[in-house]
Design a protein that fits this description.
single chain; alpha/beta; seven-stranded parallel beta sheet; six-stranded mixed beta sheet; 17 helices; globular
Length: 424
């Protein structure tokens, strides 16, 4: 029996439905003839997803295969992976539900992507499974959603547009309200659960990196440091403050890959979050330092998990309203500095002479996640794209830098643009 091109695991979840919807839309828009199926724990819920997609998209999906699979049942995961060329894993938290799916996919020579935003999981998978995936020619690419594709591929887009060597890029993440803030929570409680586990286990990263990163990246000059005051986002009225999200960890791993593989000068990265007011950033900052100690103890961690809406001030909750999310535009701004018209290595220490500002824009974080995951899947199974020569556990930029992923995203609603550039 021929394998399906793509199976979406966790298709009945909040994010999974967006992936299903976008896979159908994008494959139609791009004239990609693919076979696909859905998988998850509940047959009844999966059947309801098919009916929901038929109503939303105006098509019949009677022949779409439905598979029951559970991360507690290894045989069901092996069966699922054996029937696909690629699995999109939408079941978080990945600390709990991710590794078993990665293991089954590699065992069955099936490519794997997910929409993870958990640095510990991503780096641990690289540590444990990179060699095995490389030997089998399997691509394992975590974080193909809103948390990494816009930022990691955005840095890569700005790098290519600069026509020189970038020394540094500051990445500014903004959620811009358009016509009001909407009603109710705007982020699903499943995302909150992943965040709580990331905070609880953050100390694990140091131990993982001691084993994972054997080659030292030399100190780069001029050095990029965080700004002391709250800077304004380039080409925006909003102020910004340091942001400890997963985006920075993914971009730095991509830059490390390019340095170790191509001897390219790695771009220094600093990430910020933009807010409409200084007070809002202070509230976010205080909230973060309340969540961190609470996540460390089982009792208080369970309180965080049980009452996401209360502890997040109403931002996180069960099943956010789709119409509310459409009121937000996601904008990622990149301010890069470097040397125009020069190809320099890690020992170059002259003052930067040029700058560039780029932006990536999308609407509704879950829609952007669905789009990014769908396009990533289509590129990996397309057969005509230039991917790395061997398999392995990768971040997004090393896999997609020489493909048409950015162009496909642009054709389907995610904007990449160079706003301005000049001499310093």
């Amino acid at each position: 029996m021929a394998r399906l091109d793509v199976i979406i695991f966790g298709a009945s979840g909040y994010s999974g439905k967006y992936v299903v919807q976008n896979l159908v839309k994008v494959s139609t828009n791009e004239n990609c003839e693919i076979t696909w199926g859905i998988a998850g724990r509940s047959l009844e819920k999966l059947q309801s997803v098919i009916k929901e997609m038929e109503l939303k998209l105006g098509k019949k999906f009677d022949e779409v295969p439905i598979m029951v699979a559970n991360t507690d049942d290894e045989n069901s995961l092996i069966n699922m992976a054996s029937r696909a060329r690629l699995v999109v894993n939408c079941t978080g938290p990945y600390k709990v539900h991710g590794e078993a799916v990665v293991r089954a996919c590699i065992q069955q020579n099936c490519h794997y992507i997910d929409i993870c935003a958990e640095p510990q999981f991503m780096e641990r998978m690289q540590l444990l499974y990179n060699e095995e995936a490389a030997n089998k020619g399997v691509y394992v690419v975590p974080s193909c959603g809103v948390d990494s594709i816009p930022s990691d591929m955005g840095v890569d887009f700005v790098r290519k547009s600069f026509e020189g060597t970038l020394n540094s890029v500051e990445v500014y993440q903004e959620v811009v309200p358009d016509g009001g803030f909407g009603v109710g929570p705007c982020i699903n409680s499943g995302t909150w659960e992943s965040l709580v586990y990331v905070l609880a286990d953050y100390s694990e990263l140091r131990k993982i990196r001691e084993k994972l990163f054997r080659i030292e990246v030399p100190p780069l000059v001029p050095k990029l440091s965080y700004r002391c005051s709250l800077p304004r986002v380039p080409l925006s009225r909003n102020h910004a403050g340091p942001y400890p999200g997963c985006e920075g960890t993914v971009i730095r791993r991509s830059q490390r890959y390019f340095y170790e593989t191509n001897n390219s000068r790695p771009i220094q990265i600093r990430c910020y979050v933009g807010t409409v007011s200084f007070l809002l950033y202070i509230l976010l900052f205080l909230g973060f330092w309340i969540w961190v100690p609470m996540s460390k103890l089982r009792f208080t961690r369970n309180l965080l998990l049980k009452y996401p809406r209360f502890f997040s001030g109403g931002v996180f909750g069960t099943s956010p309203l789709e119409e509310s999310n459409k009121k937000f535009e996601l904008v990622t701004t990149f301010y890069g500095r470097g040397w125009k018209g020069k190809s320099v290595g890690v020992t170059y220490r002259q003052k930067e002479d040029s700058w560039i500002v780029g932006k990536v824009r999308g609407r509704d974080g879950y829609q952007v996640t669905g789009l990014c995951a769908a396009v990533s899947a289509l590129v990996l199974v397309g057969g005509s794209q230039k991917l790395p020569q061997k398999g392995g556990v990768y971040t997004t930029a090393p896999v997609f830098t020489d493909t048409e992923l950015v162009e496909m995203l642009q054709r389907n609603g995610l904007e990449f643009e160079v706003c301005d550039q000049g001499e310093m």
